Amino acid sequence: MLQGAGIILGGQHFKKLYEKCMDGVGKKYGLTRAEIDLLLYLRHSSDRTASAAADYLMQARSNVSKNVEELTRRGLIQGTRNEKDRRCVRLQLLPAAEPLLRDAETALNRFYDRLMTGFSPEEKCQLQDMLKRLDVNIRAEMTRREDD
């Protein structure tokens, strides 16, 4: 097997386990995984704009904008325009999102626990450090122009 094939398959398995762990939350609240991911991003990020969320989640800005509209319509988030730059809208979670976020974080912790079964605390730290480095490499490659 090619060296990279194991990483690709591992990435697909990682994604499928994440989907499996988060599906119950989506069904319970009638939300897509992308909408849940956006809410989790807003909960844990200091840069709460749709543009920053799109960059972090690696989603098209148009998709994030649709998710923002839906979550706003459902009363889970609201946007506030910046007084100095009216183009910039800061997103904020509303209290109605709290039960959903608790369930999503419980599911996320369950995902993490399943993923880390059999790892020692030291191995978990090492893996997290390596994954952070991989993420830096992936993000650098995703922003690199094709002709580089």
Which percent bin holds the helix content? 55-70%
- Could you tell me the number of beta strands? 2
Strand order of the largest sheet: 1-2
The Cα radius of gyration reads: 17 Å
Number of helices: 6
Q: How do the helices and strands follow one another from N- to C-terminus?
A: HHHHEEHH
Large-scale geometry: globular
Instruction: Quickly give the structural class.
Output: mainly alpha
Q: What is the rounded distance between the termini?
A: 28 Å
Mean of residue pLDDT values:
89
Segments where pLDDT lies below 50 for 5+ residues?
none
User: Could you give a short account of the major beta sheet?
Assistant: 2 strands, antiparallel
Strand content: 5-15%
Describe the protein:
With 148 residues, the chain is mainly α. Helices cover 68% and strands 7% of the residues. It is built from six helices and two strands, in the order H-H-H-H-E-E-H-H. It has helices at residues 3-29, 33-44, 50-57, 61-73, 98-115, 121-143; strands at residues 77-81, 89-93. A two-stranded antiparallel sheet has the order 1-2. Strand 1 (77-81) and strand 2 (89-93) form a beta hairpin. The longest helix is centred in the N-terminal third of the chain and has 27 residues, at 3-29.
Task: Walk me through the topology.
Layout: H1 3-29, H2 33-44, H3 50-57, H4 61-73, E1 77-81, E2 89-93, H5 98-115, H6 121-143
Antiparallel strand pairs: 1-2
Helix pairs in contact: 1-5, 3-4
Condensed summary:
The protein is built from six helices and two strands.
